[in-house]
Amino acid sequence: MLRVAVVGGGPSGSCAAEVLAKAGIQTWLFERKLDNAKPCGGAIPLCMVEEFDLPESIIDRKVRNMRMISPSNREVDIHLENSSEYIGMCRREIFDAFLRNRAAALGAHLVNGLVQSIDTGTDRQGPYTLHYADYSSGGPTGELKTLEVDLIIGADGANSRVAKAMDAGDYNVAIAFQERIRLPAEEMAYYEDLAEMYVGTDVSPDFYAWVFPKYDHVAVGTGTMQANQSLIKGLQKGIRERASRRLLGGEVIKVEAHPIPEHPRPRRVVGRMALVGDAAGYVTKSSGEGIYFAAKSGRMCAEEIVAASDSGRRIPSEKDLKVYIRKWDRKYGATYKVLELLQNIFYSNDAAREAFVEMCDDKDVQRLTFDSYLYKRVVPMNPWQQIKLTVLTLAAVLRGQALAPAGYKPVPSAVRTSEEAEALMAAVAPRSAMKPAEGRPASSPDPEAGQDSQREPALAAK
Asked: N or C: which terminus of the chain has fewer CB atoms within 10 Å of its end residue's CB?
């Protein structure tokens, strides 16, 4: 009977383990920190709820309104008019635990352990021996153990040990930095079903910043490419300052940072080892979405293993596993290329960012964007829409040149008058308008190291 190790218990690893366990294949799912969460906007598309049979209990908020904020603080509101449509906002510690536990309930062996090294056999063809520290007893160092398997799925994120073992090749990474901020009731009510996206050189030179609502707090963060990672804390300060009047009286309850991939790895299957999720490099440009594609890649890879192995009766070959890669690239390759092009155009400077936000005010653009995001389908444009979009783009870029600001200022409070906001800011100034919650120091983690090499990162779909 086929024996499979899935290294990494985020969405990609858990969904892969679920498919394998359902087929009766002996499956071990490794995750070091069962209660940890990665810095992620935590947004999931509507189609994922049904496709992955997700209960509403793991969704903190149903966002039906998105506010885009340009460098000059022009605000464009985007509404989902259909009451049945929404973007789900989740906390990754809740979301990931649900998927992991579901896989375990179906028969996967959930191991609270850290894979430290992998013996890959002759020419990396296996069998494979995993050397890992088992933390299930609760000790600080873990008990050293080994496990021999026929096949490995690497779902262990940007710092993947499986990728290193299989010589998958390097890739550039971006850095995500996020603070969870608990707000007073008035400010929190503003974010009831609303998420905000900010663009501008002050918050990111090549991406965007976000304020996303969660159960009892908002996630405030930003991201940037590897070349600018030394700027990340300054960029986080930029989004805090720009959104400061909407975050009045906030308490920082957690600070998070993590690397995320900028593109797929050169090799995603070597021998009988396959990469999925962030380990493979499946985070989209422009939107930074990773959760759906992580879960989808884990499922697609596992389905190919089940089919090629005759439900575990034979060991699939490297050729068999590469069928998963071909199917993935055929299904999503064009999406990644288009989003990379959009990011290169509209996140290149503040004039282009002004144009981007202006275009988002058009109803056709909004519908096309949301249909593509919510349902993961390419929505064809009729000739009139194509002409209209071209004209809109050219006009917006020209106007953006004049609108791009020389400096940046905070957006106004959405729930208080300017006088009330000034008074509140003056009252909390001696204690800092944004302070760490009592007993919870807001230390800044090292974004290069990330939180753990076996987390399944995604900059979240914002």
From this structure: N
For residue 5, give the DSSP letter.
E
Q: What is the pLDDT of residues 49-102, one digit of tens each?
A: 999 999 999 999 999 999 999 999 999 999 988 888 899 999 999 999 999 999
DSSP 40-102: ---EE-HHHHHHTT--GGG--EEE-EEEEE-TT--EEEEE--STT--EEE--HHHHHHHHHHH
Cα distance between the two ends of the chain: 41
Taking alpha carbons only, the member of 212, 144, 148 closest to residue 178 is: 212
Residue 426 to residues 188, 194, 415, 429, 438, Cα–Cα distance (Å):
20, 27, 17, 5, 21
The CATH fold of domain 3-61+89-171+263-339: FAD/NAD(P)-binding domain (3.50.50)
CB contact burial 86-115 (16+ within 10 A = b; e otherwise): bbbbbbbebbbbbbbebbbebbbbbbbbbb
Residue 170 — φ and ψ, nearest 5°?
Answer: -85, 165
